[in-house]
User: Fold DUF8158 domain-containing protein from Halapricum hydrolyticum.
Amino acid sequence: MPDNDALYDVRERTKNPEHASVDDVVELLLERAQHPRTEHRDAHLDEMMATVVDRYGTDPVRTVIHRILVDHYPFRTATHDLEMRNVDGIRIGTAAGRFLTELNAQDDG
Assistant:
């Protein structure tokens, strides 16, 4: 069992329909990867995800996001058996966590 302490407010884990789903997070991540924001404090995440999605494709990225947000995998091991560098799991997990928080905040307000 993964030993990560972070629990995410993602619909598949909480069963709360007001929380963003993994699909919502993946959609936003892919949108930001295709159209990175400029002049934004998180623009570096968008650019980083553009590189990661280009390198591995959408399916492995989606798998890593699900493993981290729902299955409670640590970022560095969420890439297991995906032919992906562990550091890219850290990058994906960082961006996915930030985007999930952003999506949930939009729904709150």
User: Anything to note?
Assistant: The mean pLDDT is 91. DSSP finds five helices and no strands in the chain. The two ends are 35 Å apart (CA to CA).
